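FYI - complex with nicotinamide-adenine-dinucleotide, inputs then prediction.
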Amino acid sequence: MAKLLVTGGAGFIGSNFIHYWLSKYPKDSIVNLDKLTYAGHPENLLSLKRNPRYSFIRGDITNKSDVNLALKNVDIVVHFAAESHVDRSIEDPMIFAKTNVLGTCVLLDACLRYGRKRFHHVSTDEVFGELGPSDIPFNEKTPLNPRSPYAASKAGSDLMVKTYYTAYGLPVTITNCANNYGPYQDTEKLIPRFITRVLRHKKVPLMSQGENIRSWLAVIDHCRAIDTVLKKGKIGEGYCVGGEEKTNLEITLNILKILGKDKSWIDFVGNRAVNDFRYAIDDSKIRKLGWKPKHDFERWLTDTVNWYKKNEWWWKKPSIKQALIDFKNSFLGND
Ligand code: NAD
């Protein structure tokens, strides 16, 4: 019987993780610490409202007293909270440094002071930079080479987590994961953005010719990977978590096909200043712990499209708010 603190649990991956964990471990409980920024959607957890094993604290990971309150009687911290959008980081890097680096540091420090809590840090493959078409995939030994303020802030947080292990012996682990897709993802990100645009009878804006390559993993497989590392991972170590490599054009054509549309629904638009060409991951280290992805890309993309079709209430905002979001999105890119 364990009590977990999940940070950023009202976001995309955090909320999927909370549902996954509470249904898999019926004796465990979770406290969710989330600031509810624009990316936090408490409605993701509506079904847990009366669940005695779930509680919510609205608070900021950069605020020591919020963190101390949330850590009470907690055994394990799973840290998702972050500013997570690359384009926003290019426009306003400061909040990324504050939340992702300072916020992680505040959490680590509190974990050290309140009884050396087990700490798992959720990070990204973007910390490794970009690959060329024939480069070998990223692995745990790949040097950090971030190319956007988002990636730099996550790399900074990864380094801070590692030093709390080497300097103070805090029991930490890290996962660096590929792009995720699935339910409850904010419509500013590529897959839900394109799905919901087509559902609103609008074309999808694809950068350049859609040649950039990303590695994609169903969010539930990411939750399973974190579970595996929490149970079997070696303290002080990082694990790369991979998915299937696809060009952005392939992803777009897949979405259009599922929705019964053709290529004419694509608007090819200009590229942004920093757009890493390729991410790919060698996940043989975590596979040795017994993890591998279970969810087939085509089927899970179809399920994701169907989820957005069925849950218009979740993403359809009142018209003025939607117009503002569309205006904002017209300046944002494909990550
Ligand atoms: P998200 O943007 O959907 O959610 C982030 C959550 O953090 C939101 O609920 C937000 O309210 C909360 N938050 C932001 N600032 C906070 C603060 N100061 N204090 C408390 N809460 C705060 O993000 P996501 O896509 O779910 O990503 C979660 C984590 O996984 C991030 O650390 C991200 O870097 C990492 N990651 C994401 C992906 C992906 O494909 N989405 C892939 C690999 C790693």
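Residues 50 and 266 are 43 Å apart (CA to CA). The chain has a mean pLDDT of 94.
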